[in-house]
Specification:
heterodimer; A: 179 residues; mainly alpha; Rna Polymerase Sigma Factor, Chain: A; Arc Repressor Mutant, subunit A; 2 domains; 8 helices; 77% helix; globular; B: 571 residues; alpha+beta; Jelly Rolls; 3 domains; twelve-stranded mixed β-sheet; 25% helix
């Protein structure tokens, strides 16, 4: 494979990595699992990159769809390795989620833009809270302990803020589509 | 059969639990079954995951700042020199190094978040309170069951340190105040902060720091000294160009225009200056850390500020004396049914109102004697234990009522926190309390023989008059002057905070009474709840009261203001 192929792959992969990560996460029980699979999938994608063909006008859209299909197999294999007692979707649900997620994958870009806008609408205290909750390596239990509250209360607030963001994102995506 | 709303709520909570990784096996089984049958639920789950991912990635890629949060909150020992790399490794989720680099770079450019500011926060709260007020007041009394987390005072995570001591004239700060993320600045005198990690920092004015977490602060200007006990090892101060991590005991820092000097009074610190390798400083060593350029060793010159708080002590004593004289003069007000100034507490809190009698002394049950507004001089009762209360008996009937108190709320962890409550909540008896969302409540029972329609568990026909939100976590530990007046003649109910009227309401016919009674009642708790559900029945105040006046008349706005000014802490 020549140097151009390499550059092209990196460009495409960089663009879709986060969508791909979300896709895998929707099939597996945790971000940790999703990240494991993402690493494996990235390697497979590179190995099979010569099989990728862009048929349509949008190479990126074709690439993410192809990447999702490849990753789905990786996720499926990984899922089987997870212990049975883990909270893993049974194959039926797994497949439904995968099929539908591939269909939706184009929507995610506009959602991300909307979220940036929605985050700005939160108060600075709310923003700070989210930032705190999403600090890498932070354990909610420890964080709640430090703040002197019950983890349940912490989650409750986090859930509320996320919901707020989610409905804001939904609203703004819908209004964009309406125009 | 579940109705639509509760099913959708239940689904929302399953999604949340699944995403937060706290779903139980039984719940997961239900969730999976519903996912199988419901395409809409699947779509909602995917969207929730997407939001979660955006937040994770966007905030995770705030490189520097977030990495230090991680350290700080984990309380790990940086001396091991390992987990900084570990943290970075955690972030490198993808195998493709270039891709990772690109993602991080994008994230860093997009988000420059401002730090939280207390005043903005308070404004936001005041607004929220007013909006929800109207709806709440339509309610006949207290709602029967409520999600105990609903009104949870937001912003709790912002408490990172407490202002332990303060010298000088500072309008903005009060000793005992909880400080959140954000700037702390003094123009004169000195201050001692106790970080929640256990570190103690003394600042000498003019000084400015920015509190980042319970484990970290950024130093902008001034001199300071940090005492770090073993439990707080890893406490970190950052400057423009450096990070100073305490590995035990005590160090001093002086900073001016971004150039810093650090010296170790006792123990050891790790210093990271710009891109230099980590330097360790031991007792008696000092180092210059300029904003630009390399660090240099310096001779130890005792830059540490001295703990100069003796002066505060004498001022405090004087100020307490002023209050004591005012208090004795206020006790002569003939409208007082009872006046407790919480001095000379011994099993009872004496009613010192000249018109009062010994029968209305308050008997202390489980409440503990603690420092009041003038630590070391003024006493208060603390009601944080679940059964804590002070019982009173105030006979008679009155045509109006004023309840006025100095209250320190540490936390609102009950659905309702009692200030002063009539025992049985029978006709004419008042309830004065604070809801968990920070709103002051005043109510009088109008007719305990009838139940309001739609609320069969209520004690009878009554109306709760809510103030806007007057408390959030930023006020934890702060002494507030609270008052509520009930004036049937003028048909007015008012709430006051620190002498200012924050809410006025009209008494309508349906909720009118001009015959008020107290009889048996309690300070800081509720004696005879008519429902036994803990969220309803347990109402002890997590905080302190150090002055309470109960008047058989409605005080005017000016009078409340005057009372506040005459009894507040003045330095």
């Amino acid at each position: 494979m020549n140097e151009n192929e390499y550059t092209r792959f990196v460009r495409l992969y960089t663009k879709v990595e986060r969508d791909l990560r979300q896709f895998i996460r929707s099939l597996l029980p945790s971000w940790h699992d999703a990240d494991e699979v993402l690493q494996l999938a990235a390697l497979v994608l590179w190995k099979k990159f010569d099989q990728f063909e862009s048929k349509g006008e949008d190479e990126e859209v074709d690439f993410i769809r192809w990447a999702c299909v490849v990753s789905r197999f990786e996720a499926l294999a990984y899922r089987k390795k997870l212990a049975r007692d883990k909270l893993v979707f049974r194959e039926e649900v797994f497949e439904l989620m995968a099929l539908e997620a591939i269909e939706e994958v184009d929507d995610r870009q506009s959602e991300r833009k909307a979220l940036e806008h929605c985050l700005k609408q939160l108060s600075s205290a709310q923003n700070e809270f989210i930032r705190l909750a999403y600090t890498p390596g932070v354990k909610v239990k420890e964080l709640a302990l430090k703040a002197g509250v019950k983890p349940e209360a912490f989650y409750m607030r986090l859930n509320r803020l996320r919901k707020k963001l989610q409905s804001c994102v939904q609203r703004s995506v819908q209004s964009q589509q309406g125009v | 059969m579940m109705n639509r709303t509760s099913q959708s709520e239940q689904q929302e909570s399953l999604i949340d639990d699944y995403i937060n990784g706290v779903i139980s096996e039984a719940e997961f089984e239900v969730f999976e079954q519903q996912l199988k049958e419901d395409p809409e639920l699947r779509a909602r789950l995917r969207q929730a995951i997407a939001i979660d991912e955006y937040l994770r990635e966007d905030f995770a890629s705030q490189c520097e700042v977030t990495a230090t949060w991680g350290d700080a909150l984990k309380g790990n020992d940086l001396a091991e020199g390992e987990h900084q790399t570990k943290l970075v490794a955690e972030k490198k989720v993808a195998w493709w190094p270039m891709a990772v680099a690109a993602t991080l770079a994008i994230g860093c450019l997009v988000y420059g978040l401002s730090f939280f500011s207390t005043t903005e926060y308070a404004k936001e709260y005041a607004k929220k309170g007013t909006e929800s007020d109207v709806a709440q007041q339509q309610l006949d009394g207290e709602p029967p069951e409520e999600d105990s987390s609903k009104g949870f005072a937001e912003g709790f995570a912002e408490g990172f340190a407490v202002l332990h001591e303060l010298n000088g004239n500072h309008e903005k700060y009060q000793v005992g105040k909880t400080l959140g993320a954000g700037a702390f600045k003094i123009e004169e005198g000195a201050a001692e902060l106790h970080f929640f990690c256990g570190a103690r920092v003394v600042l000498e004015a003019p000084a400015e720091i920015r509190i980042i977490s319970a484990w970290e602060a950024k130093c902008i200007e001034g001199r300071l000294r940090a005492e770090v006990p073993p439990a707080a090892r890893g406490f970190k101060l950052v400057t423009e160009s450096s990070e100073i991590i305490d590995l035990g005991t005590e160090f001093a820092l002086e900073i001016s225009d971004g150039d810093a000097t650090v010296e170790v009074i006792d123990g050891e610190v790790a210093v990271l200056h710009r891109s230099e390798l980590e330097t360790r400083l031991r007792t008696g060593e000092a180092r210059y850390l300029p904003k630009i350029g390399d660090s240099e060793a310096r001779a130890y010159s005792s830059i540490s500020p001295t703990k100069n708080f003796l002066e505060v002590e004498s001022k405090r004593k004087e100020s307490f004396g002023v209050w004591l004289r005012e208090s004795e003069s206020l006790a002569r007000d003939e409208r007082l049914l009872a006046y407790y100034n919480f001095q000379d507490i011994d099993h009872v809190v004496p009613n010192i109102a000249n018109q009062g009698d010994e029968f209305s002394d308050a008997s202390i049950v489980m409440a503990t004697k603690e420092d009041g507004r003038w630590p070391g001089y003024k006493t208060a009762l603390d009601f944080r234990r679940a059964g804590a209360r002070a019982r009173v008996n105030i006979p008679g009937e009155f045509e109006a009522l004023t309840l006025m108190a100095w209250v320190r709320i540490d936390s609102l962890d009950r659905s309702y926190s009692a200030l002063f409550m009539g025992d049985g909540y029978e006709n004419g008896e008042p309830h004065w309390q604070i809801k968990e969302d920070g709103r002051l409540m005043f109510s009088v029972m109008i007719d305990d023989s009838r139940q309001p329609p739609g609320n069969p568990l209520s004690g009878g026909i009554h109306r709760v008059y809510f103030s806007p939100v007057i408390w959030d976590f930023s006020k934890s530990g702060e002494w507030l002057h609270l008052a509520s007046t009930y004036d049937p003649e003028q048909r007015e109910v008012r709430h006051f905070v620190n002498g200012e009227c924050v809410h006025e309401d009209t008494i309508i016919d349906k909720y009118y009474t001009d015959t008020l009674r107290i009889g048996a009642g309690e300070i800081g708790n509720w004696g005879q709840p008519f429902r036994r559900v803990p969220t309803f029945a347990i109402r002890n105040l997590n905080g302190r009261i150090d002055e309470l006046g109960i008047y058989g008349a409605a005080l005017g706005k000016d009078e409340v203001k005057e009372h506040y000014l005459r009894t507040k802490v003045q330095f």
